[in-house]
Amino acid sequence: MLMKHSVIYFSARGLSGVINLCAIAVYTRLASPDVYGQFVMILAVVEFLNAIMFQWIRFGILRYAQRYSKDYRVDFLNTIVVLFFTMLILTLILFIFVYLCSIDIGKWGEYWFFSIILLWILAWYDLNLELLRADLFPKFYGWIVISRSILTFTCTVMMLIFGIGANGFIIGMMVGMLFPMLFVMKRNWIGIRFPEINSTICKEMITYGLPLTITFSTHFLMVSSDRLLLGWLQGSSESGLYSAAYDLTQQTLLLIMTIINLSAYPIVVRTLENEGVKETKKRLRQYTTSLFFVSIPATAGYIILSPNISRLFLGSNFIEASLIIMPLIALTAFLQGIKQYYLDLSFQLAQRTWFQIWPNMLAASTNIALNFFWIPKWGILGAVYATLFSNFISIVLSWFIGRKIFVLPFPLKEILKIIVATVMMMCTLNSMVIYSGFLSLCAHIVLGAFIYILVGLLMKIGGYHRYFISTLDRIIRKK
């Protein structure tokens, strides 16, 4: 099941990722660094509020949807809807309070109305996606994700062509999320009796999700405070230059790690609920091997090919800065993914999410403090250094605390094999980096993947050679 779901999620997220990469290439050619910087700063605030106010509900869905998949299903859905609208009302009160207090927000005032609408749509869209994921509907999930990417890209390009500016990005995002949701509403919410609520389920959701909200919020501060502080200390243009390179890298590397987690986490939770810890450890070992199997070579390949990638996918105004920071951002993205999709499972599976707060809180505080010192000194590079250092701190603390709560398997032998295969791939690619262009990049990726997979099969990493042989055998038999 894990392999099947991984393939589906990879296809859906992969296609969506390609569309998003093309979108960045187009956006950075249609919008100036200043306009792009304004948008990413607005989006950073919206996503921060989304993390604080709504993320805990989505964590609860992932953790408890399998427990209430049959009995109390309607009660579970009712509780989710009531909790969502409660938080929606709280965000409305917050926005009205800020507006009535006449806080001076200068030129950002024109984005005020669009921002709160975007927040609500984004929160509801994410919630519906998590419900599909928790219920193990990867195909439906995939169609929604792909539809959003296509609609967002199309609408945003139209808005930018007409010169609407940062609001064009916001409108494009809203349209991209609204229409796909029309096709999922009936499936997700059939039979609900709003505003009924189950107090037991509500308590479980809050107890499990609230600590994760604090954790996720501090994690968000760690990964997004840099662009906000860059915009504040250096101007929105600097934030735009930094964010374009950062988003391009993250949407490539973290996407790959996200796909593995999307398919595996619900299965791991179901195994823990139904089969116990021993079987769960077996699933986790398989999951961990898969996570490192794709993330280590992807990060190494991205670092080597980053000059060609930046020239292909970013506008001319963005290239110079990206050439300097993209290799470091790639390493940062790898550290973020390992913490988020591996180390944090110790806290989540043991339902001891309060302990997850401390590594994130210390790392976020370190990141913000270092940004204040290093951005004035080194500019964009200072923001990258601060994020990289704080992520390293977060990983060390998460490992130290998590191993005392729920010991995660660490397949050292398999990871060493992965490193050897990655080094072989890097040696091959490093001799070809003098070639550039789209066809060259495609050739590099295909050749690198071929060398890595070939060495991986010969070394029998993770037992994937058995799956490869059985698949090949089925193909031959059909012929």
From TrEMBL:
Membrane topology (UniProt): Multi-pass membrane protein
Keyword terms: Cell membrane, Membrane, Transmembrane, Transmembrane helix
Localization per record: Cell membrane
A family per Pfam: Polysacc_synt_3
Transmembrane regions: 7-30, 36-56, 76-99, 111-128, 140-162, 168-185, 205-223, 252-272, 284-305, 317-336, 357-374, 380-402, 414-432, 438-459
GO cellular component annotations of the record: plasma membrane
UniProt name for this protein: Membrane protein involved in the export of O-antigen and teichoic acid
Taxonomic classification: Bacteria, Bacillati, Bacillota, Bacilli, Bacillales
